[in-house]
Design a protein that fits this description.
By secondary structure, this protein is an alpha+beta fold. It contains 33 helices and 35 strands.
């Protein structure tokens, strides 16, 4: 048998900016691809190797199946040999559905549902007693045991605590041949036309038989028959009442409470699923949160009158039907629309908010006649609620949501499940309790579980427990011990989501696969990096090839093989500048090698800024896992918020501090997490937040449109003499609206030719030769360049070209400052790398005029950046701080942390073990702390 090839060989790769490169990658090794941001790493890993692996897989399907999958484009490469099946673990693949949780992604929740359906004990939600179920024979034996020698009635419950007159029901029962019923505890004969009070709640049972219990054949037969009939009519439940003492006992084939008689259906896995109607909480439909009307949003100021717009959804008084109805309500309750809202009687307010339907008469004192009025009013609260729940229009839903708050569902307490499902327990814990535990606690609980359950339960659960424990162990291995299974997947950071997928893949134990990962170390503290690298090594050791796009120093040093792409980024990159083991890499003279060997480094500042002497103080933050945290942010400095993953950094900054500032400056609606007070807001005058969400990824979006510099450029072109003569407006120079764009390709510059079984082919538009605009528009020139020429300029060229136009210059200069001078203004956003997109976003925010008192919040700005890119970025941030602004950065990267003027370290651990400020101060003070994990690694970096 031939030996399989030991390498993956790529010949002539030209995707995006790759310069026709040939590269050989060893198989079954941990290979790292590194290089500057935008040098072509992802083009090689994802757009060439992964795309080709995917395409070959889809090629194996029939032509019929392929037409539904949509063809995959053949990447621009001459040949790839030795390729095995490919699995890519990217950052942007998390599901944004509110129904997706950590438990459902990792499949642990599916196994928990199975475990609870098969092995858990049910308890009554009324009395807390253990639920019981019997077979018909067991019921007969119990009747003999408890009632021998006594007279009993066997009854079948048909109505349980419900209102109604039940005339039809009584007729039906009589037709079936029964003579007596028990209504609300009293046995009565069935009469023709019998009914009960329809406005009271009733319990109705059919009397099946009256028996004197004794041991003989006839009685045995009668009891057996009565049990069968009673079960048939009573939905598998029967009642036995002793004649003398009137003592009631319930028996059921399904699970039932022996005292109160409530019963549960037999448990199935979907009784524990919040995505199935059988398991989901009926109040919140299995989402765990409900939108409720906030009366303070409807009436922002009770001192104003209805006439002057006291009800925010209605605005000021107009001559509309709603205001006419409000006037009628005023007639009835004796107030005017010009009265302050706080003086309106409570009954009237109830009708205004919740609606009413009444007729009433008013006697006119002057005329002495009586007038009849009719109020038929839905109520403002009900109207808003109905619009939110039933409207198809997104904008109306958004409008309604402005008056609502998202609150935890009171019926299920956020557990998403119906009441019955939460009363199935193992070792005193329901499935709702388990999903609230963090992974460490959960692992501990499962270790101890077998000692607390019966032998029968152990036999049923043994296989399921094996699966659950293995999956929990993989989550621990990738450093996610602080998450709980109920955490919604849309709240996960890119790095967390990626590591969850990684844990799922390690759990699948496939062999011979090529895994491609995109910066898995994002959002990971140095302490957890070791665990991540070990997970990747274990994937390699069972016989897989692992290819990682990464900038992390530890990962590069631990790799078996490193490929460095460069020398610069964009059109100046796309070449292999070195490849080999990490030791061989150090001998090369590349930028990466110089940073790793320490020849080049990001310099530590000689002195730390102390700020302007003012500070922002946040007191008593208790959101998520924060334990009554109070923090001080010295203004005019660069502050780094550090701590292990899950320690509470994002809760403190993104969910508490930012919403407080945003509400204060811009009246934003996002509610901050709970806190006691904030002081020092008067020292800052605006807040700018730069988070990790990706920028608009459509082919029509580009750096010029995203940073809004294109609007200024279009305005400039409209001021050219020729454009003014022709009366051109800014829309003339847009490729998104008709008028100035080329209509053949609708302003995209390319035409799409659809091929039925092959991928679509894109060809340059023959009308405009890819210039996007029509001939008349292109005749307008500024300094000899048309609008199309401007879009094709690199940022570096644009900085020189527009140096006399301050509005445009400021924006393009910022793009150049963050190190993106090589991209063109019109480059499609879809072709930008992750690090480039992140910096375009930074540039957009940083180019806004700073006031010297601006408060910037940056969430892991180094995502996707090489050491050299980080140095350039930190120069930009330092310039902002020099002007007196304050910059708060949430970051794990030590190159950033060591440059900070002030560090706030949250921890010490993740999840429940975090949520306190471990230490704060200058880096030189922080490294003396013995409890801080950050201090340990920072010490090495500063020494």
């Amino acid at each position: 048998m031939q030996h399989t090839e030991e390498t993956i060989e790529i010949i002539g790769a030209r995707a995006h900016n790759l310069k026709n490169i040939d590269v050989t990658i060893p198989r079954e090794k941990l290979v790292v691809i590194t290089g500057l941001s935008g040098s072509g790493k992802s083009s090689l890993a994802f757009d060439t190797i992964y795309a080709e692996g995917q395409r070959r897989y889809i090629e194996t399907f029939s032509a019929y199946a392929r037409q539904f999958l949509g063809g995959l484009e053949r990447p621009d490469v001459d040949k790839i040999d030795g390729l095995s099946p490919v699995i890519a673990i990217e950052q942007k693949t998390t599901n944004k559905s509110p129904r997706s949780t950590v438990g459902t992604i990792t499949e642990i929740y599916d196994f928990l549902r199975l475990l609870y359906a098969r092995a858990a004990d049910a308890y009554s939600y009324n009395t807390g007693e253990k639920m019981i179920s019997y077979s018909d024979d067991q019921i007969k034996e119990l009747i003999y045991e408890e009632f021998e020698g006594k007279r009993i009635n066997i009854l079948s419950p048909v109505v349980r605590s419900r209102k109604g007159h039940y005339r039809e029901l009584f007729e039906q029962i009589a037709k079936q041949g029964f003579l007596k019923v028990r209504v609300d505890g009293e046995i009565r004969d069935l009469d023709h036309g019998m009914k009960v009070d329809r406005y009271k709640t009733h319990d109705i049972e059919i009397v099946i038989d009256r028996i004197a219990v004794k041991q003989d054949e006839d009685t045995d037969k009668r009891i057996t028959e009565a049990i069968k009939v009673a079960m048939h009519h009573g939905d598998d439940i029967l009642m036995v009442i002793e004649h003398e003492s009137n003592e009631v006992r319930f028996y059921s084939r399904s699970l039932m409470c022996p005292t109160s008689g409530i019963s549960y259906p037999s448990p199935e896995p979907n009784n524990f699923s919040f995505n199935s109607p059988k398991g989901a909480c009926p109040d919140c439909n299995g989402l765990g949160i409900v939108n409720e009307i906030n009366i303070n949003k409807i009436i922002p100021n009770p001192k104003t009158s209805i006439k002057n717009g006291g009800f925010a959804p209605l605005g000021e008084q107009k001559s509309t039907w709603i205001f006419k109805q409000l006037e009628l309500i005023g007639e009835k309750f004796g107030f005017k629309l010009s009265d302050p809202i706080e003086s309106i009687p409570a009954e009237a307010m109830d009708m205004i908010l919740n609606g009413g339907n009444e007729k009433f008469s008013v006697v006119s004192k002057v005329m002495g006649i009586t007038k009849d009025y009719k109020i038929d009013f839905e109520g403002i609260s009900n109207f808003i609620k109905n619009q939110f729940e039933q409207s198809d229009s997104q904008s109306i839903k958004r409008w309604a949501k402005e008056f609502m708050d998202e609150n935890e569902c009171s019926a299920c307490g956020g557990s998403r499940l119906r009441k019955e499902s939460l009363y199935f327990k193992l070792n005193d814990k329901s499935i709702g309790d388990l999903v609230q535990m963090d992974v460490v606690e959960l692992a501990q609980w499962f270790e101890e579980l077998p000692q607390h359950i019966s032998e029968k339960q152990q036999i049923i659960a043994s296989e399921i427990l094996k699966e659950i424990k293995a999956r929990i162990r993989f989550l621990l291995d990738v450093g996610l011990d602080y998450l709980n299974l109920n955490r919604s997947s849309k709240t996960l950071s890119g790095g967390e989501a990626q590591r969850i997928r990684l844990a799922t893949q390690i759990g699948s134990q496939l062999v011979g696969v090529l895994y491609i990962l995109d910066e898995p170390s994002i959002g990971l503290h140095q302490r957890d990096n070791e665990r991540l690298i070990k997970s990747l090594e274990s994937l390699r050791d069972i016989g897989n090839s692992v290819l990682v796009v990464e900038h992390d120093k530890d990962m590069i040093e631990r790799a078996d093989y490193v490929i460095d792409i460069g020398p610069k980024a964009g059109r100046f990159g796309g070449q292999i500048i070195s490849q080999g083991t990490p030791k061989e890499l150090l001998k090369e003279n590349t930028i990466t090698a110089q940073y790793i060997s320490g020849k080049m480094q990001i310099e530590i500042p000689t002195e730390r800024r102390t700020g302007n002497g003012k500070s922002l103080k946040l007191t008593g933050a208790t959101g998520n896992n924060l334990k009554n945290v109070s923090v001080e942010f010295p203004l005019g400095t660069m502050i780094c918020v550090t701590g292990v993953s899950g320690s509470g950094k994002s809760t403190l900054i993104n969910e508490t501090l930012y919403p407080i500032l945003n509400t204060h400056f811009y009246n934003a609606v996002k509610k901050p997490q709970p806190y006691k007070k904030i002081e020092g807001l008067e020292h800052i005058d605006k807040v700018i937040d730069i988070d990790q969400s990706p920028i608009g990824r459509t082919p029509r979006s580009n750096p010029a449109t995203y940073t809004d510099v294109f609007s200024e450029i279009r305005s400039l072109f409209t001021q050219m003499p020729e454009a003014m003569i022709r009366g051109y407006k800014p829309g003339r120079f847009s490729f998104n609206v008709s008028g100035g764009r080329c209509e053949t390709c609708e302003g995209s510059g390319v035409r799409t030719i659809e091929m039925s079984f092959l991928p679509d082919v894109y060809v340059e538009c023959e009308t405009c030769q890819g210039k996007r605009f029509n001939r008349e528009t292109l005749e307008i020139r500024y300094k000899g360049k048309s609008i199309s020429d401007v879009l094709n300029m690199t940022v570096d060229e644009a900085v020189d070209f527009f140096e006399n136009i301050p509005k445009i210059y400021r924006k393009v200069k910022t793009i150049q400052d963050v190190g993106l001078g090589y991209i063109t203004l019109g480059q499609q956003s879809t072709t930008l790398s992750g690090g480039e997109a992140q910096r375009i976003k930074l540039a957009t925010e940083l180019s806004k005029k700073d006031t010297g008192n601006t408060f910037y919040i940056l969430d892991e700005p180094t995502t996707g950046l090489h050491f050299e890119d980080i140095r350039i970025l930190m120069d930009v941030i330092n310039k902002l701080v020099e002007k007196g602004n304050t910059v708060v950065i949430i970051e794990h990267n030590l190159d950033v942390i060591k440059l900070a003027d002030y560090i706030i370290d949250i921890g010490p651990e993740g999840g429940k073990g975090g949520g306190t400020v471990v230490c704060s101060g200058k880096p030189e003070e922080v490294i003396k702390n013995k409890k801080s994990h950050t201090a340990l690694f920072l010490k090495k970096e500063l020494s």
